[in-house]
Protein 1
Amino acid sequence: MAIRDEKKQQTRQSLLDAAIAMVATGRSFASLSLREVTRDAGVVPASFYRHFRDMDELGLALVDDTCQQLRKLIRAARTTQAPGDNMLAASTSTFLHYVNANRSAFHFLLRERYGGSAPLRESITREVRGFTIDLAADFAKFPHFSQLPRDDVEMMATLLVNTVVSALGELLELPMDHPDTQGAIAKTLTDQLRVIVLGGLAWKPGTKLPMG
């Protein structure tokens, strides 16, 4: 039974890997056919249906597998560091390393976030929201944040997650395998996140901007 389960998991992963490899060439996920994916995965088309109902379900599995693993890694990075700069730096470093190791998957996520099918767009939106919920929950454990209104903490978490997501396109275009480049990217992104956190802690509703 264990051997059969392992082989089934390998076939599933082969299908996912084949789809990711194909979209890495610049194709949209919607343009992929089931027969192409199974051919590149080295399995017969009938095997596909033992794992997925259709191509949309395979796409949803790609979103889920990529994002769920990143969420686990990011939360682990935050919980093993003291609150403050170390936590932000650890989270940013973990994110960059994971993206660098899964560049094709993140190209897929970026492309499908706005241009994919409705099920894929909705799934990616839910995953982004999941990162925000996780971050807000982690923030609430620390004294400075626990004293803030819940809406303010969620707003700060939303800004942080959106900043990281917005940087993703640029990150994927840069040679992240170069240590100096990756270090510069990590510092810039960490500084941006620090500005948001420091500003959020000092912000009060109704405060006027010191301009004019």
Protein 2
Amino acid sequence: MRTFFSALASLLYLLLLGSCSSYMTQSKNVSNAKKDYSKILVYARGKNEIARSIFEQDVAAALQQQGINAVAGHKEKVVDVPAEKQLSREESEALKQELLNMGFDGVVITHLVDTEQYREVIPTGVYPSTDAYNYGQFGYYWTYYPAFDWAPGLTIEGTRYELESALYDLRNDTGNTLQWIGRFKLEDPKDLRKTTQGYARELVSALMKESISRE
């Protein structure tokens, strides 16, 4: 019976963990204003071409569902910049002007900030042994308590990824074009499409609430 309850507790914990999981850890509207954009480029800096393409398409699709004209940079081959390349100020300004000439006034850029290995042990439950004789006598109960049956714990190991997404307004000529920035954490994403779609939903939801206007 205790094995059954241990298994049930483990299942409930996993269901609860899955239903409450969220990728976003923090966000900030740097510009303190909401702006409308006529065309937004979605760009992800990554060496995995397939993952990058899927991610950009999912974010662009989520923006489009909100009525925003968004383009996945990898799919449309808008920008051809190697993932590992660091742009100089001159190259950055030239790229900005090129995008403006193509009709883009906003860019959402995502890149990997950090990775770390983690190991967590999570107890699935503690169950009291309810012996009527011991519970009914004060003296016996005093010496008997605490007598617990510890359910086996869950050991979770894997890799935790921290990513950052930022929205830039290319029309801003003051030098600081950053409008919004958010941090996200992913733990062992096994289903790439499900993970990118969840990330895209949270990212776009925050952008629409805090930084992008439909007007």
Protein 3
Amino acid sequence: MSGPVHIRDSRTGFDVVVVAASFGGPAALAAVLGELPVDFPAAVLVVQHRTARIDTVFVEHLRRRTVLPVRLAREGQQVLATGVTVLPARHTGIVDGDRLRLQPAGSARSADPLIGSVAAAYGTRAIAVVLTGRLDDGAAGIRTVKRHGGRTVVEDPASARAAGMPAAALATGCVDLVLPLHTISHALVALTMAPGAADLFRVPPASWAQFVA
């Protein structure tokens, strides 16, 4: 069982990081979350495409690999709970005030609604990360985050187990940082914890950027 849920310090640069992954995601998520420090200041929301029968196993997998608290999302929980909140399989989430509302979603299209809702709610204080996966879930969310002034980070397709999701995100022209898997955690730490880093890593969108699908 996880411990008490606490709310992060709102004085830091970013409130929330949404991380999306599909095929190859458990290992990629472990690599990213495993390098985040215990005082990482932003709430982390995770969307991983999987079947519902492994929800508990998946959460335990992440708990063993990070010093941050990890919990399975519950209806109505506070969005900015410290640590890592994992959405249930085949579900997405919508931000309602400061609460997370869970909604059923297809296994291949669960990241975009959550990322888009977080972007609309938190604007410049949101970060979206798209990791390995097939198809294109996360690309629409990346557009929305960039449109609202947040930061977007994508795993280099060359380091991804499956390049589909990272490549689709890159094709939007709305990505700030394209990084090998092993450096993504360092970028998140810099963005959220290093003074001035958020402004340093702001990248103007490409002239051909697609802010809407």
